[in-house]
Amino acid sequence: DAKTTQPNSMESNEEEPVHLPCNHSTISGTDYIHWYRQLPSQGPEYVIHGLTSNVNNRMASLAIAEDRKSSTLILHRATLRDAAVYYCAVYTNAGKSTFGDGTTLTVKP
Amino acid sequence: NAGVTQTPKFQVLKTGQSMTLQCAQDMNHEYMSWYRQDPGMGLRLIHYSVGAGITDQGEVPNGYNVSRSTTEDFPLRLLSAAPSQTSVYFCASSPQGRNQPQHFGDGTRLSIL
Fold first, then answer.
1. For labelling alongside B97, which of A92, B3, B15, B78 has CA 20 to 30 A away?
2. Do residue B99 and residue A49 have CB atoms under 8 angstroms apart?
3. Does position A1 have pLDDT exceeding 90, yes or no?
4. Is the pLDDT of residue B1 over 70?
């Protein structure tokens, strides 16, 4: 199964872009990359997912390396409400998922 | 819409007791899964199901059983609770597996004494 690694914590200033990295060096060719975020005492919330191409939605952008061994979640303008723990996960064709231990994002006003 | 509903929200058990954590979704999703989250860590997959009647093991299945008799429900059974199973348990669902977003419940906080 793919293993994912993330930095423990990152800080950002409000209104600035944030780049959250994830390494998934053992990913297989058909595995999808997902990102979720979690607030205290809540379940994870979906942010974005992709396979090979970069993806954009209203919440964020996902940049996937050409060799797919890493990806970066991009929050274009961080707000205080973006402070959360962000998880990178790899989902296999068989239905299994492997989550990283998460990056705690602190947003400073 | 209710989404993914987990019950109970909190539970305290004694070592050796058994119990069932309930998970129900009203979105007609085929794929459902159970995770546990220990303090400061990510989610680890316990069991998952790609449709009614079909279940499979995840990363940490020992000590847990599941069944999927209907599309809506996916209960998780602890056979004989152990202190190592103290954790927060999350249920999730999606229309299908890897290529669609998962919807998570609010979790069940379980303590085993």
1. B78
2. yes
3. no
4. no
Q: Which two tokens stand for residue B46?
A: 């316990």
Q: Which helix (H) or strand (E) holds A13?
A: strand A9-13
- Asked if B66 and B20 touch (Cβ cutoff 8 Å), the reply is no
Residue A81 has phi, psi (to 5 degrees) of: -70, -10
Q: Which of A51, A93, A96 sits opposite B45 (nearest CB)?
A: A96
User: Is A79 in the B-facing interface, judged by CB distances under 8 Å?
Assistant: no
Q: How close B86 comes to chain A (CA, Å)?
A: 16
**Is some CB atom of chain A closer than 8 A to the CB atom of B19?**
no
- Counting Cα atoms < 13 Å in the Cβ hemisphere of A78 gives 21
Other beta carbons less than 10 A from residue B30's beta carbon: 17
